[in-house]
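re: ur question from the group chat, yeah i did fold both. here u go
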Amino acid sequence: MAVQGRINGELGAVTGNGVLAAAVNFTVGLSLLVVIIASRGPARRAVRSLPGLVRSRQLPWWLLTGGLGGALYVSGQGVTIAALGVALFTVATVAGQTGLSLVVDRYGLGPTGAVPVTLARVLAAALATTAVWIASSGRGDGGGGSRAFLLMAFLAGAAVAFQAAFNGRVSVATGEPTVAALVNFVVGLTMLLTVLAVQEVATDGGAGSLAPVADRPWLLVGGLMGLLFVVTAAWTVRSLGVLLFSLVVLAGTLLGALAVDLVVPTEGAQITLNLLLGIGLTAVSVGLAVLRRR
């Protein structure tokens, strides 16, 4: 996720449109996924079973909308990372993801069923949320731009909580995480293309350009990263629950995010003491949730 965030941030910058960058990601991921599913008999049979599962209400239709959350998240990467840096973007999305994960688990929207809200779970989510404000303070810009980008990143993280829950349910119903990913990419790409069409009309052709991508083909790797994340999420969230899944993913993401900002920083990236403290608090929330689960 950290590498994908860095790539998507630059892709959004060179195309001039974060939504266009997200659409490129989804197109690459969907193309790879179609090849994978076409080569596997169980996956093809699982795809064919989807209409029957929806008609029989074993799989409510609204569970097929998880891709909307992924589309919002990837769009957020393309729009906000250039201003925030990967590490701060990650902390902000974590706050949204963990906070909403409590709600998702509480009402049984994920594949593990309803999970009670305990003090340890609330404290873990609260620590992650508090980390956002600590990490964002002392940046020295003093304006509302960074706060607006932080809010956008927070909402993108919240959308990921619903995405993980819904895709996990589809994975359980079909027995194939790749099918959950396929639904995710089809729905997300449809939404992104619709938004792009509206932008194209409203701005008279000013919805961005793919021409710069021809000189930077490595920017397409973000689609592969997104595919790996969605498939892994659909497979593991059914065992971990949405909150614990979100926090465990964070442990790996933050290490990568700091490394990316140090090695190939964006213009808006700042490695400050407040940022490190915020990441440290988030790490404590991971440990608390895992310890409580054990």
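okk and heres the other one u asked abt
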Amino acid sequence: MLVVAVGTKNPSKLEGASRAFRAMLGGGYRLVPVAVDSGVGRQPIGLEAIVRGAVNRALNALERVKDAELGLGIEAGLFEVWEAWVDIHAAVLIGRDGFKSIGLSPGFPVPPGFVEEILRKGAELDEVADRHFGTHDIGSSEGLIALLTNRVVKRQDLVYLAVASALIPWVRRGLYQC
């Protein structure tokens, strides 16, 4: 059985990751969630910080779960592109053998007023969304994307796509090892 250390205890991230592993591998794995530090702060800004947070989570999880063969880190954050701020999820898989991969979710534009508050006050996107929509801990449930899309798309869907994308080199390993 493949043991995967997952660097989060966030229910929405775990649900999306579980769906991706089930879809891509079917069975024969066990996800072990552990709370770890991303090393990039509460609200990563910039693509490099988002990816670095996912890498740190994967490595820290792998270090904490001694029988794990694979570490999974998932990090969400904002980056600026084409005069907009976009939220994405990055998923990074790192094996004890050094093999690694990355997957990204689709991105969505964050309302400009939310971004201003994040940048000015150092707030986290989920906190800003909770204040605006009157929700509580939206980042652990359906995420801001659900509120913006009338629940057509949920955070779990974004995590699912990021993790499924990161799993491609693992299920097609011969194509990715040179």
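fwiw on the second one: The chain has one domain: 2-107+154-176. The chain has a mean pLDDT of 97. idk if thats what u expected
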